[in-house]
Amino acid sequence: MMPSSRETKYQQVARLIEERYICPADENMPLPTERQLQDIFSVSRDTVRRALRELADAGLIYHVQGSGTYVAPRKHPMRAPSLRSFTDDMAARGHRPHSLTLTCHLIEAPLAVQRDLNLDAGAKVIQIQRLRQADGSPIALETAHFLPEAFSHVEPELSASLDAQMRASGFQVETATVRVVATNLTQAEAAQLGVPLGAAALRVEKVGYTVRGLPVESTQTLYRGDRYDFEIEVKR
Questions:
Q1: Beta pairing partners, 177
Q2: 3-state class of 67 per DSSP?
Q3: Tens digit of pLDDT for each residue in 85-126?
Q4: How far apart are CA 207 and CA 202, in angstroms?
Q5: Are 84 and 92 in contact (CB under 8 A)?
Q6: Residue 41 φ then ψ, to 5°
Q7: Alpha-carbon distance 103 to 7, whole Å?
Q8: Cβ-contact 147, 120 below 8 angstroms
Q9: Which of 81, 116, 125, 189 is the S-S candidate for 109 at Cβ 3.0 to 4.6 Å?
């Protein structure tokens, strides 16, 4: 390593790891182990760990417990979740959106959905699970629950906009409460999103309300943590 008067040793190591292993690599490719990096750069374990921590803080790599350290994909920052549809949102950001429907069933509302939609025990809801993609790559896994009457008691047409079908039934979502939680993906979730087991994700929980204040939609979406940031503007 060529020392720099402005760089500490771990910063030099971080720069070299970025140049040699991150920039040329495809997303989700594994990095050498900590021990290998120690030998490659002839530095201590602490120096390697501090270098990796700096790269992780910069969003260039991510660590999966028990698996290793991987090159992070380029993120697609987006503003706080809005009431635009996924298709409209992706198109506005210059991406090619696509949704793959995994399941569509009329089920008994789970307890959390009963609470969100103010339903009695045993009430039925339409559950739709979809894999959301941008430019052919999976970025989100969505599980949505709707009041059946939001689709005029007819099974929704999955090839058409759900928002448009709801509006046609008189149930347009005008406001929503949104909760964002950091989480780690299970084996099944990680497999569907194409990332390692335990990878970081953002869980976005949304309850949508009509103009009359009727809760009509309860949706949980898992966004890949290596692909999405949420930017939130706040004002005094």
A1: 207
A2: coil
A3: 677 766 766 778 788 999 999 999 999 999 999 999 999 999
A4: 16
A5: yes
A6: -105, 0
A7: 53
A8: no
A9: 125
Question: Is 141 within 8 Å of 222 (Cβ atoms)?
Answer: yes
Q: In this structure, which long-range contacts are made by residues 7-11, counting pairs with CB atoms below 8 Å and at least 24 apart in sequence?
A: 9/43, 9/47, 10/43, 10/47, 10/48, 10/50, 10/51, 10/54, 11/51, 11/54
The DSSP-derived string for 79-101 is ES--SS-HHHHHHHTT--EEEEE
DSSP bridge partners of 175 = 209
Which segments within 51-192 are labelled E, that is strand? 61-64, 68-71, 76-79, 97-108, 124-134, 137-146, 175-184
Instruction: Give the SS3 label for residue 150.
Output: helix
Task: Output the six-digit token pair for 107.
Answer: 């089920």
The alpha carbon of residue 169 and the mean position of all alpha carbons in its chain are separated, in whole angstroms, by: 30
Q: Hunting for tokens 């771990």 — which residue is that? A: 10
Q: What is the pTM of this model?
A: 0.64
Residue with the two structure tokens 């709707």: 146
Q: Do 119 and 125 contact (CB within 8 A), yes or no?
A: yes
H/E stretch holding 14: helix 9-17
Higher pLDDT, 48 or 6: 48
